[in-house]
Amino acid sequence: MKISLFDPRGIKAENYRSRYPELDRVPEFSDLLSKALIFVWWYANPTSPLVIGIPDDYERVQEALRMSTYTPSKTEKENILKLQFNSSMAVAIKKMSEFDPGARYKGYKMIKTIFDHYEKLIEQGPDAFIATEGSGNKAVTYIDYPRYVTTSAKIAEEIPSLLAKLEEGFGIVDISGKQKDGDEGASSIRDWHMSKEDNND
Known about the structure:
By secondary structure, the chain is mainly alpha-helical.
């Protein structure tokens, strides 16, 4: 599987932040227009094909401008091509370069596992809370309903937060064309979420 983080390809610039809501919560990106942020992605994101394929910074920055269609002023463009970034862009580039695709994928899988475990627990219902008191011939088996009720309530409280994380997907996009193992449910959630945004364009 080949993954990309916050991949802008196939997304209109004006929809980039709404497609990846996490980007709006990153202070280092707040001063940049969407196209400028997309330029930063092409230039600095560890999963950008330019970062992977073009080690020379000067060559990569020129190609990143072309791929992002970012059109700065003449003076700013000249400075960018000389790798003389203004403070806002320099901070954004540093932050973008620090995203760790491996750690993010592991985090995503952890959240998905928790979600799946909750689903299985709820499907089992009270039968998942069978308890035993005593031993031998005096052992008594019963369903611990208070624990079932408490656990179900706790899961209900946590589901919205887990769903939000799965919808955002940690910025992960599978660009290999293959479904991530065991990821059918979460993919459906994100697909539905994204289709809503596309239909509102």
